[in-house]
């Protein structure tokens, strides 16, 4: 397998899970602005959508969209215990967290990464991000370690990455101490550190 990624982007979540399942895989960085992969390949031909993550499974099979990739990796590696079984309420909760992270929190950060966004648009985006972060802060009020309880899941990899964007965007995590503690907890995982180091995010 090969993961096409951009350092620090949402593709980091897939990278973390590949590390967690101890999979044999390659990584290749992508300049999404110019649609060029590290190898020089035209990325728009690999993923016409133009963004990461992309998982090349082999035999001509390409999988896109972070939430889909995360669930696929978990389901293909059940021994890693990174997702509840299909048909259970716990599985629905996992999908609930993945969906909210993707369509709400991830999307809310959009203006901060757009070269054409105005300061006013970024201020609106900041308020939107804060509203979404309050949702996750409330989830951790019961003392749980991870989104589904005491067990790390693929949803945690995704939330860790996206909530972490609060730091470089200047929003910070001070308003959400439970999310901040959660982020630190996930960051301390060995495989998370390995993935971040491989992307040049840690020395």
Short description:
The protein has 203 residues and is of the alpha+beta class. Helices cover 48% and strands 10% of the residues.
Largest sheet: 5 strands, mixed
Strand content: 5-15%
Per the CATH scheme, the topology name of the largest domain is: Glutathione S-transferase Yfyf (Class Pi), Chain A, domain 2
Choose one word for the global shape. globular
Mean pLDDT, nearest integer? Answer: 97
The helix tally amounts to 8
Order of helices and strands: EHEEHEEHHHHHH
Total separate domains:
2
Q: How is the largest sheet built, in terms of strand order?
A: 3-2-1-4-5
Which architecture of the largest domain would the CATH scheme give at its second level?
Answer: Up-down Bundle
Name the CATH class of the largest domain: Mainly Alpha
Unreliable stretches (pLDDT < 50, length at least 5) are none
Q: Measure the end-to-end span.
A: 26 Å
Structural class: alpha+beta
Write the layout of secondary structure elements.
Blueprint: E1 2-5, H1 11-20, E2 26-31, E3 36-37, H2 43-46, E4 54-58, E5 61-64, H3 66-76, H4 89-108, H5 119-139, H6 154-164, H7 177-187, H8 190-198
Parallel strand pairs: 1-2
Antiparallel strand pairs: 1-4, 2-3, 4-5
Can you give a write-up of this model?
The protein has helices at 11-20, 43-46, 66-76, 89-108, 119-139, 154-164, 177-187, 190-198, and strands spanning 2-5, 26-31, 36-37, 54-58, 61-64. With 203 residues, it is α+β, with helices and mostly antiparallel strands. It folds into 2 domains: 2-79 and 191-198, Glutaredoxin, CATH 3.40.30; 83-189, Glutathione S-transferase Yfyf (Class Pi), Chain A, domain 2. The protein has a 5-stranded mixed β-sheet with strand order 3-2-1-4-5. A hairpin with a 2-residue loop joins strand 4 (54-58) and strand 5 (61-64). Helix 1 runs parallel beside helix 3 (66-76), helix 1 (11-20) runs antiparallel to helix 6 (154-164) and helix 6 (154-164) crosses helix 7 (177-187).
């Amino acid at each position: 397998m090969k993961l096409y990624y951009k350092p620090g982007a949402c593709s980091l979540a897939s990278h973390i899970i590949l590390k967690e399942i101890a999979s044999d895989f390659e990584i290749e960085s992508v300049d999404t602005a110019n649609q060029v992969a590290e190898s020089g390949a035209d990325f728009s031909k690999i993923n016409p959508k133009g963004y990461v993550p992309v998982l090349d499974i082999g035999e001509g099979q390409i999988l896109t969209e972070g939430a889909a990739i995360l669930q696929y990796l978990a389901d293909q590696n059940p021994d890693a215990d990174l997702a509840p079984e299909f048909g259970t309420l716990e599985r629905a909760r996992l999908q609930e967290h993945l969906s909210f992270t993707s369509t709400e929190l991830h999307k809310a950060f959009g203006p901060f990464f757009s070269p054409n966004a105005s300061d006013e648009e970024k201020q609106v985006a900041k308020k939107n991000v804060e509203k979404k972060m309050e949702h996750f802060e409330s989830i951790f009020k019961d003392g749980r370690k991870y989104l589904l309880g005491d067990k790390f899941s693929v949803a945690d990899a995704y939330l860790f990455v996206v909530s972490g964007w609060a730091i470089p965007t200047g929003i910070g995590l001070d308003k959400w101490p439970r999310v901040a503690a959660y982020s630190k907890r996930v960051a301390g995982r060995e495989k998370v550190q390995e993935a971040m180091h491989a992307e040049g995010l840690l020395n």
